[in-house]
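Deliverable D4.2, example record:
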Amino acid sequence: MLGVSLNEAAGRTAYLAGFHAAQALIFERHDRVFKKHSSVQGEFARLVKDDPRFDLDLRAFLGRAYNLKAIADYETGAGSHISNEHAAEAVADAVRFVGMLSVFVSESG
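Output generated by the structure prediction step:
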């Protein structure tokens, strides 16, 4: 994490909070752990695709936030910075995403 700013760390952490919450939902439904980012994102999308509680913004959160994680983990040079606004938005979206998944799991469990 050397050389990663607070904004990059916030973006990465927001994504990982959503990723792990989605993994928990998938485990609750399938009794199975998906580990690959693409597998978790795809299975999550399949599970919530017809649920009206998950608006387009929530459905797109994992893919959008993964881009922030990728910037924090792999990008250097121009374009490798996450602004204060993007970091704050990612954290707020992660709170909403994890909160909705908590409700979704408790209602279906």
